[in-house]
Amino acid sequence: MANTTSAKKATRKIARxxxxxxxxRTQMRGAxxxxxxxxxxxxxxAALKAMTRAEPELMQxxxxxxxxxxxxxxxxxxxxxxxxxLAKQD
Length: 90
Fold this sequence. Notes:
Strand content: under 5%
Low-confidence stretches: none
Number of strands: 0
Helix content: over 70%
């Protein structure tokens, strides 16, 4: 348990930040999920449209230290690769 005034304030700040970060993480995961669902269904146009929303979400999450920068880049790269594979199948 926090004893000092500054430690109590830090605890409050962390609690507020956690709520914001959870919201942003959920939003990011939802954007990625829509891309993955479009890829699974084989709809390249829907996947591309969803990807234009998901990529900035991932990169902003990386900038805000919600996920690691390399993790975001890896996700974007893998999703783009899967979308490119859809184009070859058509």
